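Chapter summary example.
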Amino acid sequence: MKKKKIEFYKLFKPIAEDRKLSTNAKLVAMYIYTLASFGMKVTASNLLISNSINLTKEEVLEAIETLQKNEYISDLRGVEYKKNIEIHKNDALKANYYKFFSSVLESDLHILSKFLQVYILSYENFNSFCYSTNKDILKDLAFEQFELNFAILQLKRKKLLTIINPRTRLRELRIGKTLTKNSKNWWDKP
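The structure predicted for these 190 residues follows.
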């Protein structure tokens, strides 16, 4: 029986907003918490996790250590009677989340740009517009100002981001298309 590929992962807002977590740690937490939200046990190896979310095996290992240190998970895959990763912050599963589509994970964008792209798309998925200020985005994604500037610049250079009414209180951010690894266009609203 062939496993079905996950269409999108759930980046729960408490995880996205946690300043103690790196973007890589947030991605690994997103992977683990998404599976937990579907009632699945996480038994995957670091290599499988890395292939699923487009990180290296070493980045996944470091992220898992960070998540354990911050009490998000316990890695019990080496424990005979458990053999899985357990989550500790079950309340996060009840929170709102950003839909992190697999095609965004597979893109060649920098990880910061992927997070911003998902943030803006979350508004469009609800047939709304993203009027968020930089201050809101910095809080919601736990970015620093230079990280946000970098992400905006990369998305604009790739012609993925359009800013309507820049430098006004009615500034609107729109994502026009998403590129995958193979540079194919993708656009799908759930």
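To summarize the output: The chain has a mean pLDDT of 88.
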